[in-house]
Design a protein that fits this description.
Layout (H helix, E strand, L loop, with lengths): L14 H6 L2 H85 L7 H17 L4 H27 L1 H114 L6 H10 L3
Helix pairs in contact: 2-5, 3-4, 5-6
């Protein structure tokens, strides 16, 4: 940042200087004041230019931060939209899965042995019936077991045939859940992107603050130089005013001296004219004096 002005180069004027310095000294002093004023004005102009450049950079950073803010807000709005869509889809999927569970309960598909197990059990019992020697009572009980399992197998098969709608409903629920997952993925991606723009916005504002501080400091330096230049200009004007006063005083003194000289010449000429009237002979110089004063 710019250094303070070199005050040792400044030129000062006191009331005593104005009263007691000679005209020549005051002319020299006025020149020094003018030159220093011009130097300070040039310095102030340079500092003002640097300040303006810094202010422009500050505005650029603020604009950059605003752009990131707008992008962040747009992304956050998209995040919110996808969240709402995801939540609606999840709610719809949950409702369908609840229906699936209810249908399974209604069809009792989860109760008892499954179809393959029942088929295997029936096969084992039939094999036992065919290969083992059984009493009449044992064979009767075995046949009852086989019939019971066949009935249960038939019920299972009938319920399974009725469960086609359940599978379709389950597939629909899974598809909706998958679509909700896609929206959730977008939420994550967009939220990450929004956070990046938020961080960039914060950084841009931080840089803008730093540059603004530099601009404020440069403005203070500008004011310092401009005030010093203004002071030198005021002192220059004071000296110029004093010089005009001295010029006026000199002119007045010269006028008074000229009037006194003219008055003395007239008085002398009147004395010569009186002598001339009295008959005295006048020399050439006396005649010239009479002629110059208009008495001849």
């Amino acid at each position: 940042m710019a250094d303070s002005i070199d005050e040792s180069k400044n030129v000062s004027v006191t009331d005593d200087d104005l009263e007691n310095k000679s005209k020549g000294e005051l002319i020299k002093l006025a020149g020094q004041l003018r030159d220093r004023r011009n130097e300070l004005n040039q310095l102030a102009s340079e500092r003002a230019s640097k300040r303006d450049d810094l202010n422009a950079k500050t505005r650029e950073k603020v604009d950059e931060a605003q752009e990131h803010r707008e992008q962040r807000d747009e992304l956050n709005q998209e995040v919110q939209d996808h969240k709402e869509e995801r939540n609606e889809l999840n709610a719809e999927a949950n409702e369908l899965f609840d229906k699936v569970e209810q249908m399974r309960d209604d069809l009792e598909l989860d109760e008892g042995a499954d179809i393959e197990q029942l088929e295997s059990e029936i096969e084992d019992l039939e094999f036992k019936q065919q290969t083992e020697v059984l009493s009449a009572e044992e064979e009767r009980e075995l046949i009852e077991k086989i019939e019971d399992k066949r009935e249960r197998l038939q019920e299972k098969r009938e319920k399974l045939n009725q469960s086609g709608d359940l599978e379709e409903l389950k597939e629909e629920a899974e598809e909706i859940r998958s679509e909700a997952s896609k929206h959730h993925q977008k939420v994550t991606e967009l939220a990450d992107e929004a956070q990046k723009h938020h961080n960039q916005m914060i950084e841009a504002y931080r840089e803008a603050d730093e540059i603004r501080d530099d601009a404020d400091e440069m403005h203070e330096k500008f004011v310092e130089a401009q005030e010093a230049a203004d002071q030198h200009h005021e002192d220059f004007v004071r000296v110029q005013k004093r010089l005009r006063e001295l010029d006026k005083k000199e002119e007045e003194e010269e006028r008074e001296a000229r009037q006194e000289k003219e008055e003395a010449a007239r008085e002398e000429a009147e004395e010569i004219y009186q002598k001339f009237k009295e008959g005295e002979t006048l020399d050439t110089e006396d005649l010239m004096k009479l002629q110059n004063t208009g008495l001849l």
